[in-house]
Specification:
The structure is a homodimer of 252-residue chains. With 252 residues, chain A is of the alpha/beta class. Chain A contains eleven helices and twelve strands. In chain A, helix 7 links the parallel strand 6 and strand 7. In chain A, helix 7 packs parallel to helix 8 and helix 7 packs parallel to helix 11. The relative contact order of chain A is 0.14. Chains A and B meet through helix 7 and helix 11 of A and helix 7 and helix 11 of B. Chains A, B: GO terms for molecular function: RNA binding; RNA methyltransferase activity.
Chain lengths: 252, 252
Amino acid sequence: MKEIQSNKNPLIKTLKKLHQKKYRDQQNQYLLEGFHLVEEAHKSGAEIQIILVSERGQKEWGNFLTDYESICYLVSESILKELSDQPTPQGIIAVVAKDKRQQQLKKGAWILLDRVQDPGNVGTIIRTADAAGYDGVILGDGSADIYSTKVLRSMQGSNFHLPVITMNLVVAIHELKKMAVPIYGTELNKAAKQFDKVPKTNAAILVGNEGQGVSKELLALTDQNLYIPIFGQAESLNVGVAAGILLYYFKV
Amino acid sequence: MKEIQSNKNPLIKTLKKLHQKKYRDQQNQYLLEGFHLVEEAHKSGAEIQIILVSERGQKEWGNFLTDYESICYLVSESILKELSDQPTPQGIIAVVAKDKRQQQLKKGAWILLDRVQDPGNVGTIIRTADAAGYDGVILGDGSADIYSTKVLRSMQGSNFHLPVITMNLVVAIHELKKMAVPIYGTELNKAAKQFDKVPKTNAAILVGNEGQGVSKELLALTDQNLYIPIFGQAESLNVGVAAGILLYYFKV
């Protein structure tokens, strides 16, 4: 296996730039850390371009790595630490090509994210949509980039299980309507319909920004806007939790 | 208003230690950042011991601050930045005494946390329990400290709205059983009962550690263990989302 021992190696310096969205977009690639996620990428047929592994990792995952011998580099823990955004690096970091497949909308169950900005929320919602058996996730403009390390970590590999489409939400709603998919917005407004009064069905659920919720423009395009009742003194629910309640309500 | 301009001021140096649990426990006090949270502390009657405010904050919240004139310090942005764990400090940080009230368990709806370690998860679950109108939260040994800044931030003030009791969970389950509160554990095991097959009622819901779930010892003490079905390829749900689904299932 090839080796890189210096943090000043030009490849390492270049890869470090992938922590910035700008470079991920330019290069069409991203960093994926941890054996579990790299294995999920492998299983899904994602294009793994480079693997950096520590000595410890090489021993532990030697079998898996034989498939990738030609693109695998043995590196120091200090290099992994430099490329990781975690206090304790996980022994393996891969460079993976972004998913280039043109994903199509189809009749089914979807979740739409309007400017959800917290990476943990975006990742958690994609993970929940996967768990709940949804057909896919539509990320509107202004949502967190799914190739950031924080989103990748909280998705736990779900991006390899279901389509995550970046798309203007006005267009997406228009397309889904043509396929007769019911579209439910969400709002913090008791005048909206309490969610559990709506029949359970495959639907497109639209959730919004942490501070402002779904934009008025989009709420005006839905079939119905839903409200999760607040019984206590909290002002609102975390958007990841609200999405989870609705995703499961329509499915069980 | 008194002023502190030097980051080396002994008070500032002492307060900075409150980022460590050890000092919070010793001093029975914690740091609370942001006007919204300080206002929630005020409304709930919490003992606010010191307020540090920037010049900008003093202008914005002058009315509120008149009640606290004698314990209020005008400080530089740089001091707030030193005490904050956020990239952009919020203009106000209070030192608040931990809640010393002896909270009692009572017959009602509860959520129990078994070694939930991620501060964001602990905070989100407490916020959801508040929203869903639960009677309180019981934190077992090994869960994240609710007075850490991350938990405080994700609770969004819900700790001022409902009792959060730290207690051994074996004892808590025993007490709740004596009051005839049904106790539902959660597990990632299809042999458990699918949650929506159980009648909706005020109950105690027991959720567990991010990696290991609820301990076997505790699962053996419940009335019933519940399972949230996984329809897709995700291995599990985020514990904050799972808690949200169950908290609302039993309430709506």
